[in-house]
Design goal:
This protein has 341 residues and is mainly alpha-helical. It contains 17 helices and three strands. It has a domain of 60 residues. It starts with a strand and ends with a helix.
Length: 341
């Protein structure tokens, strides 16, 4: 059974999920100071390496050093520090840094900090509700100052939360229980049901208000693309013209549009344009990812650049793929002859 992947998304048999806040990409604004010292950059690289390897004890020490001078800290660093603190049971320090983060930014990323599997221990701490309220209140003030429609933005934020709520369990559950386990099947069933509900909720909003532009709801506009991307093929094709208009107006990123275009082409058995879709195959006794067929692969990076996407070699590296035309063509042969979970 085919499993397509796009921006860390898989299909099982329809595994369509997007973790929009996957590290190292954070969407945090409002830094209080510049942070670009070479020595700090070197230390940050070490900290990220420890963090990625789940060596949280060492990562905690590194990020403690980086976060000493909060007046000059890039707010993006707080997630690494907070998570390292939670994973090493330094809960008091985790909440101190969370408070510093709230003070350091203009618009706290509430959804991001609500949807992190590694912060599960924080969510059960009695202090969490008060800090969550602080983030929501500060974000609401920011949104109000920007003139956004708060009711509509709140509706989209809630839909986004519902979309991601079970998707954050996918990676840890696959690791803990196995890809074909009962626990994983239950997660996918919940995701499928919620995706249908989210589409109905979004269509209800559209029937009353039309497409919700970025100027009206801010960054929450992306939720509309997320819901379409997680719908079935017929829905994606129906709303593709709407997404093209939204990308032209800047309501969603062109790279997001590219993912939808690729997904539609891949689902129809055609060659994709931007190389975002992958399949997980069993080859010589182990599972691995391979990139689905691409039209004119020789000019792939040129097309990706036009859509604001990173070079294919960097994208493929996220899936432990060594990208080259030679390797890609060899993988196509594996894809034809492989068994797929």
């Amino acid at each position: 059974m085919k499993k397509n992947v796009g921006t860390r998304s898989v299909s099982y048999p329809y595994r369509r999920f997007i973790l929009l806040f996957s590290l190292p990409v954070l969407f945090i604004s409002g830094s209080r100071g510049a942070w670009a010292q070479p020595a700090s950059d070197t230390l940050l690289a070490k900290g990220k390496t420890y963090f990625a390897a789940a060596s949280f004890d060492t990562a905690f020490v590194v990020f403690s050093q980086l976060l000493e001078d909060t007046a000059g800290v890039n707010p993006d660093l707080y997630y690494y520090g907070i998570t390292s603190a939670v994973q090493t049971a330094h809960m008091d320090q985790a909440f101190i840094w969370l408070g510093d983060y709230i003070q350091a930014v203009q618009a706290p990323q509430v959804s991001f900090y609500q949807l992190q599997y590694n912060l599960e221990a924080m969510y059960t701490d009695p202090r969490w509700p008060a800090y969550l309220l602080q983030m929501r209140q500060k974000l609401s003030g920011y949104d109000q100052d920007k003139g956004y429609d708060l009711a509509l933005k709140d509706s989209l934020d809630e839909i986004f939360y519902l979309d991601q709520r079970d998707r954050i369990l996918i990676a840890p559950y696959e690791k803990k229980y196995g890809d074909t386990s009962t626990q994983m099947q239950q997660v996918w069933e919940r995701i499928g049901r919620q995706d249908s509900i989210n589409l109905a909720l979004l269509q209800h909003l559209w029937n009353r208000h039309g497409w919700l532009s970025k100027s009206r709801v801010g960054s929450a506009a992306v939720t509309q693309w997320v819901v379409i991307q997680h719908a079935d093929l017929a829905v994606q094709k129906k709303y593709l013209p709407l997404l093209k208009q939204a990308a032209a107006k800047g309501d969603i990123k062109k790279s997001s549009l590219a993912l939808t275009i690729d997904r539609i082409l891949s689902e129809e058995g055609k060659e994709q344009l931007y190389g975002s879709q992958l399949s997980r195959i069993k080859w010589q006794g182990s599972y691995r990812y391979v990139i689905d067929p691409i039209a004119d692969p020789e000019h792939l990076d040129q097309r990706r650049k036009e859509m604001g996407m990173k070079p294919m070699a960097d994208y493929a590296r996220d899936f432990d793929i060594d990208w080259s035309l030679k390797n890609y063509k060899a993988d196509l042969e594996k894809l034809k002859r492989s068994s797929r979970p």
